[in-house]
Request: fold
Amino acid sequence: MAAPTTAAPKASASGAPRKQNDTFNQKDKPTQVRLSNITAAKAVADAIRTSLGPRGMDKMIETGKKEVVISNDGATILKHMSVLHPAARMLVDLSAAQDIEAGDGTTSVVVLAGSLLSAAEKLLKKGIHPTQIAEGFQNAAAEAVKILEDISIPVDLEDRESLLKSATTSLSSKVVAQYSSVLAPIVVDSVLQVVNKATDINVNLNDIRIAKKIGGTIDDTELVSGLVLNQTAITSAGGPTRVEKAKIGLIQFQLSPPKPDMDNQVVVNDYRQMDRILKEERTYLLNLVKKIKKAGCNVLLIQKSILRDAVNSLSLHFLAKLKIMAIKEVERDEIEFICKATGCKPIADIDSFTEDKLGTADLIEEVESDGSRIVQISGIKNAGKTASIIMRGANQYVLDEAERSIHDALCVIRCLVKKRALIVGGGAPEIEVSLRLSGLAKAQTGFQAVCFQAFADAVEVIPTTLAENSGLSPISIVTELRNRHANGEQTAGINVRKGAISDMKRENVIQPLLVSTSAIELATETVRMLMKIDDILAAR
Reply:
């Protein structure tokens, strides 16, 4: 019996075995790339999952400059996170996109995207093509948005109560939750000050300014009529700190001797020349200040300069003599807000300093409270639509987190201006979407039915996580929720304070429709994009 023969690999001319071209044989590479992307993105979602909801945990982040940030706002945590994997970075961008679009729900959108990716991973293992998964998820998301719109409650901007409830719900998951009764009215009133309720379909949040001052507690935060400046009046030369019937000038040039562009030296070897230089400087500054006084200005705001001193001791002396209140170090990005609030126009050089460019106010004074000083401008004539909030807190960490919380609450009211509809919170809309999508899945055929059911299961991650973070049993809570919704209780949700299921509408847990719809749309869009990627190439 002859021994079996094995064909030896054909040797090339050099004697080395020839490697077959296996470019087209790497069938498992796209699968590996997809799984790698899904794993990286899920890791990001899991990292901030514990921050969801009123009982969510906070994260302490140490930045590269050794600064410490304490927050439970999804967008803030991810912005500071050092994320290297390109797919995981897409979730960071997703959170930023939700922050721009809705302002709230930045944690929910990432958790939802992570859950959808887990569902997609299971479907891939079943052998469904990624393009079909992407298409199925897109159709399911469109249906989910229709369901949310169907269960939404229309809202009118005149209905202050509903706006307050929405702002309170947004603040309930923040560090400043116990102060929501103080902050919610401030947030609602500040937005209503800057919008036209009948015609506006958006709010420019740059028209609402938050001045942060250390000292006091968050209880002392207040909405101020008029304008508040972080800067203080200059009193070193004996200038005034209170001016009635004020005429405000905002200058973008400096009240100090001019400097040449290049560094150069002037050698003075005669004291008469020295006297002449000092005399020239005095005359130059006196002429500047006299022109300012001639225009009728008695309050001068001076923009911060990086090239030379905004004012020097001599010009301050002249300003004090002429009873002009001076405030320096006005930041460049504050100019537009100050002009809008006071009705003044920025003046770039002394020749264009005329009375028509001045703003008018009844009173400008420097006030001190809780150990910090601020300049308050009140009784502004022809003021633009702006609002100023003075925020107080025990330390910088509390102030920063309180500012982020107020920003989220402002965004919630902005959502209601954009899309005037509310839905209940507490995981109720997600369970309703899940139930209705499951019903729709039975009417579908082929891969669409599987994708709809997977999407329906994935959306349940929000109530599950809410229950987990509140220390409740997620399985029993979500099962009971499903049962209540199946029996027609559309507004039943998780009450984390009582640790039970109750009517969210009666508990006043409501949120804007736009937050939930944009979260579902953006999360699905990101998951579709990740599904379509089958290779990662390094560019030179």
User: Anything to note?
Assistant: Confidence is low (pLDDT under 50) at residues 1-15. The longest strand covers residues 359-369. The two ends are 59 Å apart (CA to CA). The chain has 16 helices and 17 strands.
